[in-house]
Amino acid sequence: MSDAATLESFRLADSFLPVGTYTVSYGLEQFIQDDRVEDAADLEALLSTYLRRQVGPAELVALRAAHAAATDGDIDAICRADRRLSAVTLAAEFRESAQQSGSRLLSLQTELRDETVLNRYAGRVDADEAPGNYAVVLGVVTALADVAVREACLLCCHGFVTGLLGAAQRLLSLGHTDAQRILDELQPVMTAVVEESSDGAVDAMTPFAPLVDVLAAEHERAERRLFAS
């Protein structure tokens, strides 16, 4: 990639990016409240499951489809991937969080860049013709910035894991060294799910993490919540 594309990928992966991902735990809060995640080992196992069962077979497939469609200027294909991702995401909190983060990223990028594809896609989202999921917006944004699709997928995985590690530090007695160790240990998993997602088709997205969906539904009805999801 060019230096500009590499620097853009760094910006998009930075926790400084104001898209609100620090407000979500994607069910982790409920796992901890139910004593299903008590230490770093439990957390690493759960994050691996998220990557293999949800991020890889759903978000990354949608990201790849959006990346290819944005490269071709195919707005309809972007919207199809976007709608399909929402359709296969069972937990209402997950859908809402993904759309809120996606909306913020899309708004930010349209302020920074005057791109025809981006503006047309934003118009579809504003017209409720597409939900504006974060993974899909990220696919569009990275394609327009000439960030290669593999790097975009790795960026998505890295951002997801670091976001949940940040949440875990507020919910568990998890030190910075343990967080970095988990991030390091999950690198092969991230690489594997990125490879596997290359064969995925939008119409055949297959996320399957039943316990995650059940606890996410419990979290929606929790009396006290630190995180939006």
Which features characterize this protein?
single chain; 229 residues; mainly alpha; Urease accessory protein UreF; 71% helix; UreF_sf
Describe the model.
It holds the Pfam family UreF. This protein has helices at residues 3-13, 28-33, 40-72, 75-88, 92-112, 116-126, 134-144, 149-171, 176-185, 187-197, 210-220. It is mainly alpha-helical and 229 residues long. The chain has one domain (3-12, 38-211): Orthogonal Bundle (Urease accessory protein UreF). The longest helix has 33 residues, at 40-72. It is globular. The mean pLDDT is 89.
Average pLDDT rating = 89
Helical content, roughly?
Answer: over 70%
Order of helices and strands: HHHHHHHHHHH
- What structural class results from the helix and strand content? mainly alpha
- Give the strand tally: 0
How does the overall form come out from the CA principal axes? globular
By CATH, the architecture is named Orthogonal Bundle
Beta-strand portion reads under 5%
Number of domains: 1
The CATH homologous superfamily is called Urease accessory protein UreF
Please give the alpha-carbon distance between the first and last residues: 35 Å
CATH topology: Urease accessory protein UreF
| Rg over C-alpha atoms, rounded to the nearest angstrom | 17 Å
The CATH class assignment is: Mainly Alpha
Report the total helices.
11
Low-confidence runs of at least 5 consecutive residues: none
Largest sheet: none
Keywords: Chaperone, Nickel insertion
Organism: Haloarcula argentinensis
Protein name: Urease accessory protein UreF
